[in-house]
Amino acid sequence: MKIGGKEFNTIWFNEINQNVQIIDQTKLPHKFIIKDLNTVEDTINAIKVMEVRGAPLIGATAAYGLVLAMKKNNDVKYLEKCSKNLINSRPTAINLEWAVNRMKNKLLSCKPANLFNTALDEAKKICLEDISFCEQIGQNGLRIIEQIYNSKKKTINILTHCNAGWLATINWGTATSPIYLAHKKGIPIHVWVDETRPRNQGANLTSYELNEEGIPNTIIADNTGGILMQRGQVDMCIVGTDRTLSNGDVCNKIGTYLKALAAHDNKVPFYVALPISTIDWNIKDSKDIPIEERNSKELSNVDGVNSKGEIENLLIYPKKSKSMNLAFDITPAKYVTKLITEKGVCDASAEGLKNLFK
Ligand code: MRU
To answer: Where in the chain is the domain with CATH 3.40.50.10470?
Structure first.
């Protein structure tokens, strides 16, 4: 998608420098900085500090981490060690583990001399697949937006939480992909963007990327969605997910659950868009999903830009106060209207997901 009118992916391999490049998302929307990742440690750090974030993108970054590892040391023991460190860099999004395991499966049967090239081919494949799967999610979600538009014939108001846009994937996004395709087709769309405290992925990233694509959007405080739904000002919700269980329970950015409850109470359809790689087929009970708890400073301090255009970090809480920063919550399947995947749209249930594979 576009930034400043120019097409970008979120991550790519620089063939000249033989390194990986990313858009540093910690500086958006105030500064657009392309950052070099030269080592596997750089990729681990980028995931930890959220220079890259969003389930599919951290998976792809981990895949490239193993490419950089194999460039340095084409040894299977080193591959195992780096894989473990990459998987441990963030706990909740399953795509991280999925991508690392896919890379390992490919590499473990390779001759040492071929490890780097094979890793590079596979990481590029993961990225290309992600682009095409997200576009397909868009096509499948577009049909839902078209149905609503055909009966409403007026601007469709869509509420989204966090950033499940192209910045969270390689391109297109999951939740935003149907929005981009509907916009391209001329369907009038307006997006309510949840700010998404404490990291403000909605305000800083979703609104930014929608602006760059010319899609009307309004940032709202996280607690505003409920009243908008009561007033009939939301036609549908679409969010992404970091891990969806085979029973349809959805783990996504903290606050998603409350939006789903409000949507249920107000009969607003609540959709979750995801690639199949975000499904955890092993964990059966959502209580067993590892929920990331991040540094409480993300709550007590905020980044902003001062009058000189410099990014500053300011304390906004009493110094003595304690705070708690859980990053994800679980939306039970019963509150999810449908899952939108690259394979089709299905019920959020074991049966629904099974039908996708028939
Ligand atoms: O903590 P983040 O910014 O990595 O969380 C991202 C989300 O919760 C997204 O909604 C989710 O990963 C889906 S991304 C297509």
So the answer is: 140-355
Q: Residue range 89-118: average pLDDT?
A: 96
- Cα-to-centroid distance, 93 and ligand 1 (Å): 8
**111 CA distance to ligand 1 centroid (A)?**
36
Q: Which CATH class is domain 140-355?
A: alpha beta
Burial class of 322 by CB neighbour count within 10 A (0 to 12, 13 to 18, 19+):
exposed
Distance CA 114, CA 80 (A): 17
Active-site annotation holds for 280: no
Neighbours of 351 (CB within 10 A): 10
- What percentage of the chain exceeds 70 in pLDDT? 100
Mean pLDDT of 159-169: 98
In CATH terms, is domain 2-129 a member of 3.30.565.10?
no
Residue 74's pLDDT is what?
87
Q: Is 244 in the pocket of ligand 1 (CB under 6 A)?
A: no
**pLDDT tier for residue 46 given thresholds of 50, 70 and 90:** very high
59 lines ligand 1 (CB under 6 A): no
Query: So what's the pLDDT on residue 185?
Result: 98
Distance CA 66, CA 63 (A): 5
CB-CB contact of 180 with 215 (8 Å): yes
| Annotated active-site residue in 42, 194, 222, 242 | 242
- Determine the Cα–Cα distance for residues 101 and 83; give it in Å rounded to an integer: 8
pLDDT score of 246:
98
Alpha-carbon dihedral angle through residues 252, 199, 91, 47, given to the nearest 10 degrees: 120
Ligand 1, atom 5, lies closest to the CA of 54
